Amino acid sequence: xRDANPTVILIPGLGMVAWGKDKSESRVTAExxxxxxxxxxxxxxxxxxxxxxxxxxxxxxxxxxxxAKLQRMPAEKELARQVIAVxxxxxxxxxxxxxxxxxxxxxxxxxxxxxVAAAATAKEITDKYGMGIGVAGTGLSNCGPAIGxxxxxxxxxxxxxxxxDAILAYGGFDSIAITAGIFxxxxxxxxxxxxxxxLTFAINVxxxxxxxxxxxxxxxxxxxxxxxxxxxSANAVVAKKGSVAYDTxxxxxxxxxxxxxxxxxxxxxxxxxxxxxxxxxxxMFPRERVIASLSKYKIPYTEDEPTxxxxxxxxxxxxxxxxxxxxxxxxxxxxxxxxxxTRCLSKTTGQVITVDGGLHxxxxx
Length: 365
Fold this sequence. Notes:
Blueprint: E1 8-11, E2 15-18, H1 23-46, H2 54-61, H3 64-71, E3 83-87, H4 92-102, E4 107-112, H5 115-129, E5 146-150, H6 156-170, E6 175-178, H7 194-222, E7 226-231, H8 244-264, E8 268-275, H9 287-296, H10 307-320, H11 330-341, E9 352-355
Helix pairs in contact: 4-11, 6-7, 7-8, 9-10
């Protein structure tokens, strides 16, 4: 016998709740039931509704050809039935992570400080994989494989509101990937203003803590295993001039990963991905910062050169400092996030996985 649990429950005064292995199946179940109700109403209006005998209903449900079709269906994808929030999904690594994990069956809550950017990523996904059904009165109209939400991770109330919206859309969440971050360059004198130092730590360190602390309440209520994946940096272990706030914040994020792994065990595994400099596709490298870096490293360029050309030059400069001599892309980082979000490394927690092309200065020591 297949799953005997109900897939439709009617609650007087509230309405109907429909279940399925994912949002799409839940929606179809609800639509089938609505159609059945209309058939019953129509039949009763004409004469009376008579249900099929149980044996006949059983024979239809367990028809041999239907059974054969079910047996030949492909295995579920690695992240099927998983609801994963990607914070920073509006651009760069976060956008790439969202697209990577949805291919493996995940439902993705695309989160960004910029709600328009978050919604754009969610739309790219729903345009490709199909739309779902909205949640009435919430504005959550794209509740198929992805939704777009805004959140300021430095504001606990904003984080809680975002998580509540994710729960309203999907019933809960399994894992969270945090890719949001900020790099603040020093002023012309090489000094970092106090407020910029505070902002760097607020986003790169405290923000991840607030997300973990709020998510922990839901994870404990659910009692289901999950993952939290943070973003640190190769800079966390490589001291260099000109990025003191960023580098020290990422060093703190490294240790935050270990502390959260202890705090959230055994239910939640906590790991981190540490990229080296990702220039191409990164929101942290606008044209002016690319030019500033080219000037800093004395790499020839012209003021009227296209941004793409300037970005490629800088990306190749960073690549040439690594052992693999290949530019590091958001897609490279997304593979590491995907791996940590699956069951493939189910016994790994409190670890930082580097994706830096082989930056020997960052070797473990």
